[in-house]
Amino acid sequence: MYTTNIDNISFEIKKLKNVSKKDLSFKGRDLLFGYACAAAQIENGLDDIWLDHAKEGKVAGFLEDDKLNIRNNFWDNPDSEMNFVYDTGVDIFRMGLDWQRICPEGLDFDKEAITRYKEILKDVKDNDMKTMVTLYHHSEPKWTHRQGSWKNSEMIDQFVRYSEFVAQELNGYVDYWNTFNEVQMYITLTQLSNFWPSPKGKYNSLGLFNIGPIKGTYQKSMENVAKAHNRAYEAIKKYSSAPVSIAHNLAYYVGDGVIGRISAKMSWQKFNFLLVDLTKDHLDYLGINYYGAEVLKGFNLVLSEKFEYSDSGRAIYPKGLYEMIKIFYEKYKLPIFITENGMSDAKDIIREKYMLEHMKSLDLALSEDLPVLGYIWWSMTDNLEWADGYAPKFGLVEVNRENKEITYKKRKSYYLYKKIVQDRIIDTTSQDTINDNFKNSIGLDRIMTRDRDAETALSTRNQRTQKVKDINWSV
């Protein structure tokens, strides 16, 4: 049996091996395919912490590319996103809400805002799709941010009150709930650094020392989040029978060198396992956001020559999706929902290969009867990628922001995902074409929106290039 003892997880960089070629078929498998989005990334008209962060010059590419704060104009025109969603025929649409829009000042709720969200969800349901709603996808209200964010235990009551209101109002329109999305990353990047908006403009200068054995800012904040989730779970259940979980970011942390392996081990404990350990009794399934590996040398993230990278600096490791499903199911015995998987690739050069290899990983998990409920791609359209601004391009649909009216263009990878969703199969002929295209791309220039330190975001004007590497990253 596969053991989930942290001491038995390899922290070395491992080579991947090819599996025998076969048709990848998802026919007859009870699996939901979908797309995900978040309010702060696509809704227009938000006067939020991200806009303030951009005005301070800390969001690369935000003001130069979106002077009017349109983002993707989703609030006024959700069809700009949803027409593509409906065209592909996916089974489920995951949508994040903006807490501040629903509760602007911390006391009264905005009925017009929740009615608007209800209209969007109703339209999804009317198109015979399921819905997944995320209550907190990095959309923190200014008023909780000013109070210290998750360091302040008073935020627990505030979040529970908000969750109960939303559950009561949207009852019947939601098939799956997420309370939090990647909240451990949010706390790390806001509380332990100033890379994301720091509460009161202050952050803990000890930084990543907080992920070690001490019980510092990170641990205390995570405990407050866990209490908020556990109580919100009970509040939601008063009104909704839909399953409740979190959308939890998992990275396959690997260490380069002795200190790097120690750092990787701590990262598995603090970032991958801690929140699930604290909330496992209040999870109906486990949502997993998986993008790839993170390589640590010493206590720092590095860009390793042993990996191919997405434009935004995520090391591509498709087998890690299978490994995460297996590790977390064996450890927690909860059904798994892949709530996010995707990559930034502005030129759409290797996204199809990325998609194919992650489908192989998903197929491998299903062949071992691991309970995977669904797979959700991030994202349908290019959007605001937090402190990275508009430079990383995650969308299957390209978004052009050069004029007042943003325009859209389907990328080649859009049609591959549409085929997977509708045909439920990637035959060997299609796989050969994808693999040949990948081989032909080796040596071509791609875009990198992270600097050489693996952390600093680059704007669209300052991005650098990288060559497609001759590396075998097949599952």
Describe what you observe in this structure.
The protein is α/β, with parallel strands linked by helices. It has one domain (6-467): Glycosidases (TIM Barrel), CATH 3.20.20. Helices cover 37% and strands 17% of the residues. The strands form 4 sheets. It has an 8-stranded parallel beta barrel with strand order 2-3-4-5-6-7-9-10, surrounded by 6 helices. The protein is globular, with a radius of gyration of 21 Å. The model is unreliable at 1-6 (pLDDT under 50).
Q: Features of this protein?
A:
475 residues; alpha/beta; TIM Barrel; eight-stranded parallel beta barrel; two-stranded antiparallel ribbon; 15 helices; 15 strands; 17% strand; disordered N terminus
Q: Please report the first level of CATH classification, the CATH class.
A: Alpha Beta
- Average of the residue pLDDT scores: 93
Distance between the termini: 21 Å
**CATH topology category name:** TIM Barrel
Shape: globular
The CATH architecture category equals: Alpha-Beta Barrel
Helix coverage percent: 25-40%
Number of domains: 1
Q: Please report which band the strand proportion falls in: under 5%, 5-15%, 15-25%, 25-35%, 35-45% or over 45%.
A: 15-25%
CA radius of gyration? 21 Å
The low-pLDDT segments are 1-6
The ordered string of helix (H) and strand (E) elements is: EEHHHHEHHEHHEHHEHEEHEHEEEHEHEE
- Compute the number of helices: 15
